[in-house]
Structure of PTS system, N-acetylgalactosamine-specific IIC component:
Amino acid sequence: MEISLLQAFALGIIAFIAGLDMFNGLTHMHRPVVLGPLVGLVLGDLHTGILTGGTLELVWMGLAPLAGAQPPNVIIGTIVGTAFAITTGVKPDVAVGVAVPFAVAVQMGITFLFSVMSGVMSRCDRMAENADTRGIERVNYLALLALGTFYFLCAFLPIYFGAEHAKTIIDVLPQRLIDGLGVAGGIMPAIGFAVLLKIMMKKRLHPLLHPGLCCRSLAQVTGAGYCCRCAGDGADRPAA
């Protein structure tokens, strides 16, 4: 599948908006479960977009920034990974193995960009001393523009110039390597859940979690059905 200039530009605009939302709006548009379907709509394959976005959401579910420790960039990882899955026809778990390296590289660029922006803070301090609110506003808007432009370029360039080569690369790769990417991609959601459980899991929940997991596996109930059942049980109980 070839990606047109208009499609690549639209994906760049999505990355621009999602990048601003991640640090300022926080409407959670930047999450994979939202970005994946948006990429699918732009590229004409909503089904693959939903599947890949959901898979990547499992990867990033337990990854949260803590002070200076930043996880791989979720926005570019999702957009590039979903576009890769759609253009090459690979499974979503294989796309995860491609998305994470892109996400790591872009996060390094984001960290460098923030380091450069920190040099402007002394100037903002002087503006604050002089009550120059207009100047502080201009600095903030310019910083937002620089951040959004960086996201736009990181999404537009690899998708537009690299999409036509992606299918060729996949065709020449040995099947063993592709299977390895699929295995690595399948492990990543488990790692995401493990990180999340490490933060949230309490000892008093173990007697509930393990028997519940065994019963769910034996009954072959899907995740959606299990969640609906739990929600129904919770609705039947009176509020505390």
User: Anything to note?
Assistant: The chain has two domains: 5-201, 203-240. Residues 5-201 form one domain.
